Amino acid sequence: MLTVLTIYPLSRDATRLSLRRRWSQRLLAILGIELRVAGQAIQPGCMLVANHISWLDIFVINALAPSAFVSKAEVRGWPLIGWLATRNETVFLRRGSRGHAKIINAEIATLLDGGRNVAVFPEGTTTDGSHVLHFHAALLQPAIECGHPIQPLALTYAGAGGQPNRAAAYDGDITLGQCLRNIVAEPHLIARIDAAAPIATQGVHRRHVAAMSHAAIVARLPSVGDVTAHSPGDEDARKKVA
Known about the structure:
Elements: H1 2-6, H2 13-30, E1 33-39, E2 47-50, H3 56-64, E3 68-72, H4 81-86, E4 91-93, H5 98-113, E5 118-120, H6 141-145, E6 150-158, H7 176-185, E7 189-195, H8 206-218
Helix pairs in contact: 2-3
């Protein structure tokens, strides 16, 4: 908070991004999480599209490629978290408003035009990481309108032996406290980002781009049966909104 209040206003964009990356890397280290990266390099000016497993996903992505995230508008009103999110380039989306969607699209386009990465979780909710839900193609529209590519990111969490692990999953009826306890209880947790090649969006319908992004992520995930059961919660109760 002190850094955001005192250093941010006097810092260049590159400095803010560096601070965000360092914060995220330190948080992962404190929680005993090792970051592993595979696939293609993250390209600047891309919309990053990822599957959504945990609140940790934001820090995992920021530890590699500090990005502006698209979030539901309600997060802006959350104590402390909303304040920090607002000052770290979070784009707040008010669902169901076409007029507001146009404003948001223009805001995202400005970031992409400036060479920044904007990250979205088009499933709109979290899973345990064993599968990927349907993508809401409308969330990809800003990148399509301004002609910037979309780069799919497959996120997975694994145990010390490399086997997929559900400890980080923030899905179903699990609380934030339970999720945090599950993470801390793991002696060693690996967060892995496998980046696919960027997908060109010029002249392509958003549903087609969404389908290609979905397929690219699914191809980089372990099979459903490989995920180690860990965190509680009903598999059919996916109610945590991204």
